[in-house]
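Write out the 3D structure for:
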Amino acid sequence: MPPPIVLVVDDDPVILKLLTVNFELEGYAVLAATHGSEALDVARESRPDVVVSDIMMPVMSGIDLVIAMKADPELASIPVLLLSAKAQAADVRAGLEAGADDYVTKPFEPLDLLTRVEAVLNR
C-alpha cells in the first residue's frame, strides 16, 4: 500500500521544512506549497490524502484555501488541518466553521500533530 500523501502549506521556510521532515520520518509522502493558491493547484493536480496548512500567508490564506477546497466537489472530501499561531477561541471557531477538520495552534508538538493527522485520516 502506498504511503499517505500530505500536503504541507506554510510561508515560513523553517516551519515548512520541519513539517516535511517530521512527516517523511513517519512514512508519509510529502508535497509542499508556500501559500493557499499554490496549495490549491497542487491539491487539484496531486489529490493528497490530507492537507496541513498555516492560516496567515500571502496570496491566499489557509481559511480561504479551506473554503475553496470544500467548495470544489473534487477536493471537498480531502481533510484539512489548520496550523496557526492564532489561538483565540474565535480564531479556532472561524477555522472550523470554514470547513477545517481540525485546528492546531503554534507552537505545536510534532507528535501531537501527527496523531491528529492520523485521526482525521482514519475518520
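Strands lie at 5-9, 29-33, 50-54, 80-84, 102-105.
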